[in-house]
Every structure is written in structure tokens, then in C-alpha cells.
Please model this.
Amino acid sequence: MKEELERLSLLVGKEDLSLLSSKHVAIVGLGGVGGYVVDALSRAGINRFTLVDFDVFEKSNINRQLLSSLDVIGRKKTDVASAWVKRINGNADVIVRDTFLSEENIKEMIDRPDLIVDAIDSVKSKVALIKYALENDIPVVSSMGAANKLDLTRITFADISETYGCPLARAVRTILKNDGICSGVPVVFSPERIKVENGMLGTLSTSVAAFGIYLSHLAISVLLGKDGMTGGKIKTRKKDKEKNA
Model:
């Protein structure tokens, strides 16, 4: 066992630590929420990643995105995220996809990981990714809107069917329902009502970080099949439990 993971092993045990190290996780969207997921899952012993994003870092990202800083402005988010993982786990296998994910290229971009983490802003791409995951029996966890949120105590775990008060969740839920998907998507969301000024959404570093950490925790709970990590709010599918047994 690596010395870096000793404290994690004390908490979850060697068996679960070995389970985490065997998993392949695809993280789609490497901005505010996704950047924190990259960091947290790298520190949780995940050894194989597929990182997907088409964007480059801009100065406007610095107020909320963990992977952004003045020295990476103009660089591809996938390149920066890959290097970040390697600084934490030099033996990690990292696949980068510097492409905008769409319904047409999803299979090519991520194929069949053990878990998909959705940190996408685009409703169309988010829905396409979730549908692909469900249709191919790939566990998926998703972040709803983190912008314009100030009250961290409102952030929680839920199935997509149980979300409320979040415009992004409502849009995703409605489209999925129209396609016959009413539940089965574990998400992180906040029902805190947001105010939009001149069509712009504001962001706070602590709120975005909290969403990223909640999403990372949800991802780990699904990988380990431990419902108790989310207070029982997210039920791991039976087939996933059997797979992890």
C-alpha cells in the first residue's frame, strides 16, 4: 500500500481501497465543479481517468476553479487536469479528450468506464451524457447548478426525480422525463433560489468547491456501494452492489 493512502485505508479498509484503485472514472467538464472532482478522486486512490473538456483557462475562471491560476491562462483544461493528477499519483493512467462532448461522439470520448462524473454546464450535452450512461448501464453521478448559490447548508444529495428549486435540474429532469427517464440519476443540487442579473450568473469559490466535494463524495459512495455515505439519500443499484461484492 502506498504511504500516501495510509490514512484513507484506516477509514475505508484495505479491501475498499483496493476496489477504488481498480476503478476507471470518466470526468466530463473540468471547470469549477469538475476541477475539484479531479483533485479529490486523485487523492482517493483512483488510478485510471478519462478527462473530457474542450475549453482553455481564462482569467475569469480564477475566482472559482481549483485548477486555474495566472500561469495556466490559455492552456487546455485537459492538459492542466492531467498534469494535476500526475502530481498526486505519478502512476495514474490518464486519457485526455480535448473535445466538446456531444451525442454523436460520446462513445468515442468515454467508451465504458466504471463511473461517469458529469460536471457539464450545457443542458444538451449533460442530458446526452446521462442518457448514454443509463442506456449502457454505466453508473453516473451529476452536478446540478452551482452558480448564484450562497447558502452551503442547502446543498444535498438526491435522485434527479427529487430535485426542486434548481433551474438546471428542472431542465434536465424535464427532458429526461420526455424521453422516458424519470429516475436513476444520483445528483448534487441546491434548492436555493437564485437571482439573475442581466442574464449573468455569479459564482463564489466556496459554493463551487462544496459542489465539487459533494459530487466527489457521491462518486466514491457509488464506486464502493455504500449508501450510508450519503445518509441513505442515494440508493446504490443492486447490480452495482453485486458487482462490488
Remarks:
- The two ends are 21 Å apart (CA to CA).
